[in-house]
UniProtKB/TrEMBL annotation:
Residues 18-75 form the UPF0033 domain. This is SirA family protein. Residues 1-20 are annotated as: Disordered. It comes from Natrinema versiforme JCM 10478. Pfam families: TusA. Gene3D superfamilies: TusA-like domain.
Length: 94
């Protein structure tokens, strides 16, 4: 399996919904994202904010296992050691 290149720059779109998972672990964060995905219409943009270092892997896997398109994952350093990840997903349904 080859690794997919993940864009690191936010798309030039306004998100329809933001899930703020900063300070939460990925397991509870993914559950919140999955609930949000159920409520969004096709073509909507979901922005997920996270401080969990597994965000890049977890949200990439979520997109690969669903029809949703991973648009970008931005990484920003906050303070000395804390990183924040902002993920953008476009909702697709068959």
């Amino acid at each position: 399996m080859t690794e997919v290149e993940i864009p690191e720059t936010a798309p030039d779109v306004d998100p329809d919904l933001t899930v703020d998972n900063r300070g939460r672990g990925c397991a509870s964060g993914i559950a919140r994202v999955q609930r949000a995905l159920e409520d969004l219409e096709c073509g909507s943009i979901l922005r997920v904010r996270s401080t969990d270092r597994r965000a890049k892997r977890e949200y990439s896997q979520l997109a690969a296992q669903t029809e949703h398109e991973l648009l970008a994952i931005e990484t920003n350093r906050r303070k000395l050691i804390r990183k924040e990840y902002t993920t953008y997903l476009e909702i697709h349904r068959s």
